[in-house]
Specification:
Elements lengths: L1 E10 L6 E10 L2 E12 L5 H19 L5 E5 L2 H7 L8 H13 L5 E5 L6 H20 L1
Parallel strand pairs: 1-4, 4-5
Antiparallel strand pairs: 1-2, 2-3
Helix pairs in contact: 1-3
């Protein structure tokens, strides 16, 4: 079984800051992959955009490297977890943009979404901060 921990942030302000994310992929408790990235900066960037982009990046990795395996996605964003599991309605423009794409990508993959407290998502949180810091340093050196 595959377990994915994912997280996103928008800093130094939300909305409008730098949206960055991190995710980790485990198989039966063994780390397979760490991923992180920056979505963008400024208009349209939010914590939720970063969270959904983390999910997209993780799903792309799974499609290439672990097709056909059962996946449990764990995150500390109540909104993302509840919308992806169908417990909450999709209302915002951001969610309406991401949820159908992610659901389509997950067709044929046995999966579930589980909310975890922030403390249990510390590694993914650290990766999103890492992506933000790399971006910030790169911007200052240019």
């Amino acid at each position: 079984m595959i377990t994915v921990f994912f997280d996103g942030l928008c800093s130094p302000k939300n909305p409008g800051g730098v949206a960055a994310y991190g995710y980790l992929v485990y198989r039966n408790g063994e780390l397979l992959h760490r991923g992180w990235g920056v979505v963008g900066e400024g208009s349209g960037m939010t914590n939720n955009v970063a969270e959904y982009e983390a999910l997209l990046a993780a799903i792309r990795w799974i499609q290439k490297n672990a097709p056909g395996e059962r996946v449990v996605f764990k995150g500390d964003s109540n909104l993302v977890i509840k919308q992806m599991s169908g417990e909450w309605r999709v209302r915002s423009h951001t969610s309406k943009r991401y949820v159908p794409i992610i659901k389509s990508m997950l067709e044929g993959i046995e999966h579930e979404f589980v909310w975890v407290p922030r403390e249990e998502n510390a590694e993914a949180d650290a990766l999103s901060k890492h992506a933000y810091e790399i971006y910030r340093r790169g911007q200052r050196s240019g």
